[in-house]
């Protein structure tokens, strides 16, 4: 079961590209984007940290990610849980959630 903070993290990650696009026009979200980047950077050494890029920035399906990583789809769901759980304290430190 995913808690509310994990859902907030997913919402932020899904909207990241939108914030970047808006920011190009008026630099309104520089600090927010920087905080997200810092949080994601902190888990870059995790085995499947590229999951974030594939799922939230490239909008790949779980099936596409499984194929890309050569793992079962169920494994991708477990990867998601692990990665988001590792991101949670970093998002809290950055005061994103």
Features:
mainly alpha; 5 helices; globular; 97 residues; 0% strand
How would you characterize the overall build of this protein?
The protein is an all-alpha fold. The chain is globular and about 40 Å long. The protein has 5 helices and no strands. The mean pLDDT is 92. 74% of the residues lie in helices and 0% in strands.
Structural class, from helix and strand content? mainly alpha
Sheet with the most strands? Answer: none
Number of helices: 5
Shape: globular
| Helix and strand run | HHHHH
Number of DSSP E strands: 0
Write the layout of secondary structure elements.
Blueprint: H1 4-26, H2 30-41, H3 50-57, H4 62-69, H5 73-93
Short description:
This protein has 97 residues and is mostly helical. Helices cover 74% and strands 0% of the residues.
